[in-house]
Amino acid sequence: MALGASQRLTDSVAAVETMTRFALAVLALASGVYTYLGARTILDGSPTAVFFAAVIYSVSVSIGIYAFWSYMARFYPHVTTRTGRTAMLFVMAAGAAMIMAMSSWLNAAALAGSAAVEQHLSETVEDYTADLDRAHQNALAVQGLLPDIQRAGERFAQLAAVERQSGSLTGTTGSGSVVQLLSQMSAQMKGLENGINGSREQVADLFTQGQKRLETMRSLVSAPGAIEPRADQFSTEVVALTGVITSLAQTSIAPSVRRAADDLSIGFIAPVPDGTAPDLVNRQNQVMDTVRASVSAQSKALGKAADEILSRPRVEERRFVPLSAAAAVLHYAQDFIPAWAGAISIDLLPGVMVFILAVVHGAIRRQEEGLPFAERITAAELLQALQVQRAVVASGMTMEEAVAAAEPDGDLAEPNNITSIDLKSRARDRSHEDR
Prior knowledge:
The chain has 15 helices and no strands.
């Protein structure tokens, strides 16, 4: 029964040998094709040079994969010692690593390279969208100071009007030094307000331009067709958008507001009281001192608010790095695990067949070792043994003498090495010596 099972396994191994070679050839060819597609994405030069370089490389990879796994399928199942098996496993691991290095990542680039580049472009769009929003917010932050500036300007203007009409501050109506000072402060606040309002339109225009660039970039990411021309146009849009973001960062009027706040207090120059009576001059001085204190408080408040705006993190200029399909599939490998698994499986699937053959040959050896010699000998070996026996009888030698004659060194001879021709020639030589 054991001999029958062993024979069936042996017959099965012989039956699938052609299929094994065919499968190795198909897998090596498939790996070569995808390697060619991946290699074209990383090669530069003329179309002809790229074509021939990619073809030569892919053919080399196909031949290397087929030869390597053919050697492993032929030799590994028949290595029985522990040291030999360990050495072969080490060689297999080294070869598999080399195959993945020279082929698998290019296969993955062919399978998922375009999707990886699109993901790179998509993440770049998200980054630039965040940069544009931050630059826009920084540029508009100074707009939050506009209500305070308007209230301060209106307050100075109202005080000047009241003083001119009723003299509620100095007790004397008319346009004197106090009215002149209040009007001057109101004009400064109005000028600062106009500057902020003017920057708003410029910021809105730049933000609109940036949004249009982002919309174009998003359409390039999702557009059908080859990825290379879309990536080139995407790079052009990135350059334009970077200029818009830089302009937004330079448009902020916060530094101007900070300088204006300092000018309010440092550059405060009160006019000389123009009252004719000493009592009026004294009242004018008191009102001017009050205005000076109010202007100083307003200056400190504006300076503090401007400093908070200026302390915001600036939008650093982002550098867009285009990636090829091969580089993108490596950079975003964790997002394309199925493609990587398929690419590696094409190259390493023959290893499974090698282990299957090793297991089958191991089972055959174990079954045959438990059988007596008479059941393990084949018909061909039996016929050869009978031929040797007839040759020994014809020579007039005993079996021990025939074995000794076949191996002069005294080692035990293999039956396959003892042929009838050798025995007859040795018998003739010995008979001549006896004579």
